[in-house]
Amino acid sequence: MTRARTEITRLREKARTDRAELDALLDAARVGHFGLVDAAGRPVVIPTAIARDGDRLLLHGSTGSHWMRSLAEGGPTCVTVTELDGLVIARSAFESSMHYRSAVLFGACSALPPDEIAPALDLITETLLPGRSAEVRRPTRRELEATLVLALPITEWSLKVSAGWPDDPPEDVAGDVWAGVLPIVRGYGTPNPAPDLRPGIALPPSVGLIESPRRSQTESGPR
Fold first, then answer.
1. Residue 19 reports pLDDT greater than 90
2. In Å, what is the CA distance from 182 to each residue of 56, 129, 206, 223?
3. Staple 218 to which of 18, 67, 86, 115, CB 3.0 to 4.6 Å?
4. pTM for this model (two decimals)
């Protein structure tokens, strides 16, 4: 019997099958790594911005991009998405590890038709910076024609979550070495205005209201 490629074989206790947990990861992540085989038969992995739209994952790029065009033709791809949430500091380097959420998605992309490109780009913009779409000018026809938006169905996937305490052996616990979890805190710094920004233009709400810092789910401790 052939093993499904989404079956987790190492540390199976970290496997998750709840689609809501996968969606939470995809909504939190900003970059996905797309693997494919190029025209010369060589493997390549490309990092790019992603946004979840219901049951599909969106990505965009130039119509002149060779790898985007290759994916648009329906070739198989594998996408990996990872969020690092903390460091698990054990009493030995061997037992030390990380808190992470990691997903692998398999499938084939398809290109969105012209009438769906603008709404999809709005969704990607809103994922990166909520409220920004209403603050900027609309894309021109030439810009839309130069942009390729792809969708990957979220149907075949695996999810692995590590969120526990250090798992030290009793002899190490009896020692005098500190152990615990160090949460990772992510956030945005002070906005830097463009050097050619005209005087008097205020910071837009989308930038001024963005939450900072964005704290990881492990800040209150492992689940």
1. yes
2. 33, 28, 30, 14
3. 86
4. 0.87
Tokens of 199: 């005087």
User: What are the tokens at 192?
Assistant: 């830097």
Peptide bond into 47 cis (omega under 30): no
Distance CA 222, CA 181 (A): 8
Q: How confident is the model at residue 218 (pLDDT cuts 50, 70, 90)?
A: very low
State both tokens at 41. Answer: 């038969």
Asked if 184 and 86 count as a contact pair (C-beta separation under 8 A), the reply is yes
87/91 Cα distance (integer angstroms): 13
Burial (CB count <10 Å: 0-12, 13-18, 19+), residue 207? middle
**Using an 8 Å Cβ cutoff, are 93 and 48 in contact?**
no
Sign of the dihedral defined by the CA atoms of residues 38, 41, 47, 50, in that order:
positive
Question: Tokens 């999810």, residue?
Answer: 159
pLDDT exceeds cutoff 90 at 9: no
Q: Where do the domains of the chain lie, and which CATH numbers do they carry? A: 12-215 (2.30.110.10)
Pairing state of beta strands 56-62 and 147-153? antiparallel
